[in-house]
Amino acid sequence: MNTFRIGGVHPHDNKEFSAHKQIAAVPLPQKAIIPLVQHIGAPAKAVVAKGDKVLVGQVIAEAGGFVSAPVHSPVSGTVAKVDATTDAWGLPMPAIFIDVEGDEWLPEIDRTADIKTECTLEPKKIINKIQAAGIVGLGGACFPTHVKLLPPPGKVAEVLIVNGVECEPYLTCDHQLMLERGEQIMLGIDLVLKALGIKRAIIGIEKNKPDAIAHMAELAKKHPGVEVKPLALKYPQGGEKQLIDACIGRQVPSGCLPIEVGAVVDNVATLYAIYEAVMKNKPLISRVMTVTGKSVKNPGNYEVRFGTPLAQVIELAGGIPEDTGKIIGGGPMMGRAMQNVDMPCNKRVSGLLFMKKDESVRVEPENCIRCGKCVDACPMGLEPYMLAKLSAAQNWDKMEQLNVMDCIDCGCCLFTCPSHRPLLDYIRYGKGKVGGNIRARQMAAQAAKAAAEAKK
């Protein structure tokens, strides 16, 4: 069975706690806090002020640039203020605070359950609607989707790779979305194929979701050019480059994007959002997320309007278990421990994992024994032990030379290390420093170019 060729690990998937739990809607909050930073790229800029009345779906913040996305109101009510709030890690972020008053939507949004199948829009108008709806990648990266659909000059898309893998342990929201809203996902695929001007799509789904494989394969019979490819279990198969390798056998070169090998990758949740945006005029104002853990009373998959405090979602799942040691935003491999649960749900939140105390304590690290397991496990072909060592020594130039920016933060190195060394912590820190140096050089080069042109 197909999978990617370099590295990877096999953690226990622990999906049985929330798998096959039907998607449940979370009630609206009394007060919504909508962050302006919900995606990779430039933050959105608020276009409302204190006292303004807003409806569900109304633009409340415009995109801050090409690689950015607008933000829409997920509730109706009155803007209380535009101010800073804190994220789950105590860092400040700009946000719009809204006092919720009912649930009034913009009239142009189609709220019926009818599935629309016919789209007469030209490709450019499809992309424009996706951009205007604030659609970003919902698989974790939150990259503005319209950018992916506009390949740079000289690059041509050949195939759409659909990420239905959900390889992160514990999380099941994408699985359930395929089961409950598979036809809408298929229509989203058709829309992206039309926007890109191509005719081939491959849906990659790991074999631990046989019902989703069967369901999507049956639906694909009505959608020419769309095929479902069952994949062997291996983490991190949901990574773009790993999924491309598994589905079409092409490897994306270091420092390059998927379009370099003719591929565009979108998550199933993103494609569902695309269907709603193009066919229903509904902007991205909610998402399905998983709340799970071995001691959670009501683990499940919940559809949450952005701006809803995560604490409210947790209460619906039965509250915080007494034996909780850590609350992870996301899954156990790529997620991060949260300092508080008062932050609002947003486009980035795919799940909440409650880890028991005895599972969440880090083992005291020991000396590296040069076993090479982290090298074998790295899906990007890097040398994690060396990158961690260089990060500790603050040798940012050498880290850049060893392609640290190719790291996808998957945690395979940390998972496989017999000495329990915090490899990913060091590498993430180093990536931040190297990325800052690269951006500084780019800005300096742009400034020098502008100065040179001004002298002409």
Overview of the molecule:
By secondary structure, the protein is α/β, with parallel strands linked by helices. The chain has 4 domains: 29-100, Beta Barrel (OB fold (Dihydrolipoamide Acetyltransferase, E2P)); 123-280, Rossmann fold (3-Layer(aba) Sandwich), CATH 3.40.50; 289-360, Ubiquitin-like (UB roll), CATH 3.10.20.600; 373-455. It has helices at 123-132, 145-148, 173-196, 210-220, 240-248, 268-280, 310-316, 357-360, 373-377, 384-392, 396-401, 412-416, 423-455; strands at residues 24-25, 31-35, 45-46, 53-54, 59-62, 71-72, 77-86, 92-100, 159-163, 201-206, 226-231, 263-267, 286-292, 300-305, 324-329, 336-337, 351-356. Strands 1-14-13-17-15-16 form a 6-stranded mixed β-sheet. A 4-stranded antiparallel β-sheet has the order 2-8-7-4, with no helix packed on it. Strands 11-10-9-12 form a 4-stranded parallel β-sheet, sandwiched between helices. Strand 13 (286-292) and strand 14 (300-305) form a beta hairpin. Helix 3 runs parallel beside helix 4 (210-220). The longest helix is centred in the last third of the chain and has 33 residues, at 423-455. The mean pLDDT is 95.
